[in-house]
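LOG
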Amino acid sequence: MTISQSPTEGGFYERLHCASGFSISIQAGDGHYSTPRGPSALYEAVELGFPSEVDSSILAWAEDRENPTSTVYMYVPAQVVLDLIKSHGGPVSGGCPPLASPVLPSR
C-alpha cells in the first residue's frame, strides 16, 4: 500500500483508491475548498471530488447534490474524510493531503 501525502509536480494529489473499489479525489491548498486554503502541514478540511459511487456520509458537502459522482465536496472535515476512507476498507493507493487527525486508517 502506497499513500502519498505530497502533491504531484502539477500540485494535485493522485486519486485515492480504497480496498472496496471506491475511489475519490482529495485535494487541499491553493485554489481548493480546504482549510487552510494555502500550503499547510495539516489540513482541517479538504476538497473531495468525483467519487466513484455515491456515499451518503459526504452528501452534505456536495456542491451539486443532483449529480453526486460528478461534483466536488467543499470543506469536508478531516475526520469525515478519515471515516469515509475507513468505511471503504482503507486506502490501497493514491494520495491524500496531510489531515489534522492522527493517521490515515489502514486496512
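LOG (cont.) second protein
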Amino acid sequence: MVVKTRKPDSTITKKIESTKARKLKEVPPPLAETRQNIEKPDLDQIVALNFKIPFRVKKDFKQIAAELNITQSELLKRAIGAYKQREGIA
C-alpha cells in the first residue's frame, strides 16, 4: 500500500516566513524621536478622490461644470465651500 504525503502549501510557508521576518526586524525608535520625523502633507497638493455615485448625479455634475465653464474639481471646491458656509462650518 502506497501512502501519499501532502507537501506543505507554499502560501502557508511564505506566511510563516514573513511572520518570522517581521519579528526579527529592528526595534522601533523611541517615541521622542518619532514625533519629530513625521512629515506633514501639503494641504494644497492635488490628489485623487475616488468614490461611486449614481450615473445621473455624475451626468448632472459634469453638465453643471460645463455650463459654468469650470473644471469638475473647481465645481466640487465651490460646492463644498457653499455647503460649509450654509452649515456654518469653519
